[in-house]
């Protein structure tokens, strides 16, 4: 779950205006300083300018950052990332649910808690918890790369952690899937062989042989 659901990825460069006005979306390869002149408002960007040198993760992070910036510009009144709060980020995550492809059953659905429903149902589609969690990680890194300080990073707000936890628990119950991390089995230390025995124990093993034990028993 390295990225938001495929449907959102395909619309990240053509995201509709939440205020019902036609958007003007920047392309994925556009300069990051188009978003409100960057966090500091200076118009400078620390992002790489050559798209050929960017990894898949960096390209996805840039698209996410541009999409979030467009969402803030379409906000009423418009916001800049530096004036964004955790509440605005939560609203953004809820807004993305319309692009989700994960079926989340309601409690009234007969397939609630069923990991493999045998038939379709009218339950809504949502963004998967893992996709949202990865998205927040990329946006959190992008915010600091564009001049934002860690202490002012809205993507690290407590409200976002609570929201993601709520989404995770809800989807786990609705889909019958556990998101608990599996504990890795600890490797047992290699057993010491006879060569690593203490000198005193080794000497005793040499002096006391099975023949000596048999003689002593007689």
Outline the structure in words.
A two-stranded antiparallel ribbon has the order 1-2. It has helices at residues 6-11, 56-73, 86-95, 129-145, 158-175, 199-207, 210-217; strands at residues 102-103, 125-126. Helix content is 39%, strand content 2%. α3 (86-95) packs parallel to α5 (158-175) and α4 (129-145) packs antiparallel against α5 (158-175). The protein is built from 7 helices and 2 strands. It is mostly helical. The protein is elongated, with a radius of gyration of 28 Å.
Topology:
Elements: H1 6-11, H2 56-73, H3 86-95, E1 102-103, E2 125-126, H4 129-145, H5 158-175, H6 199-207, H7 210-217
Antiparallel strand pairs: 1-2
Write a concise keyword list for the protein shown above.
218 residues; mainly alpha; two-stranded antiparallel sheet; 7 helices; 2 strands
Distance linking N and C termini: 73 Å
Q: What sort of overall outline do the alpha carbons produce when their principal axes are compared?
A: elongated
Count of individual helical segments: 7
Structural class call reads: mainly alpha
| Percent strand | under 5%
> What strand line-up does the widest sheet have?
1-2
Sequence of secondary-structure elements: HHHEEHHHH
Using only C-alpha atoms, the radius of gyration works out to 28 Å
Number of strands: 2
pLDDT < 50 stretches: 11-48, 202-208
Mean of residue pLDDT values: 74
Report the biggest beta sheet as strand number plus sense, adding barrel if it closes: 2 strands, antiparallel
Helix content: 25-40%
């Amino acid at each position: 779950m390295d990225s938001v659901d495929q449907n959102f990825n395909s619309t990240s460069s053509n995201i509709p205006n939440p205020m019902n006005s036609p958007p003007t979306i920047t392309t994925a390869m556009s300069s990051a300083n188009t978003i409100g002149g960057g966090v500091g408002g200076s118009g400078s960007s620390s992002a790489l300018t050559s798209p050929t040198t960017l990894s898949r993760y960096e390209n996805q992070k840039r698209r996410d950052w541009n999409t979030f910036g467009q969402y803030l510009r379409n906000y009423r009144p418009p916001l800049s990332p530096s004036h964004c709060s955790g509440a605005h980020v939560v609203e953004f995550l809820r807004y993305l649910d319309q692009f989700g492809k994960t079926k989340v059953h309601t409690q009234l659905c007969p397939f609630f808690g069923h990991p493999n429903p045998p038939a379709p149902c009218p339950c809504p589609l949502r963004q998967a918890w893992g996709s949202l969690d990865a998205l927040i990680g990329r946006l959190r890194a992008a915010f600091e790369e564009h001049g934002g300080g860690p202490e002012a990073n809205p993507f690290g707000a407590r409200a976002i952690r609570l929201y993601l936890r709520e989404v995770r628990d809800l989807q786990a119950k609705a889909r019958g899937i556990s998101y608990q991390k599996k504990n890795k089995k600890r490797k047992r230390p290699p057993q010491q062989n006879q060569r690593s025995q203490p000198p005193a124990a080794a000497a005793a093993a040499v002096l006391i042989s099975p023949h000596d034990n048999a003689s002593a028993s007689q």
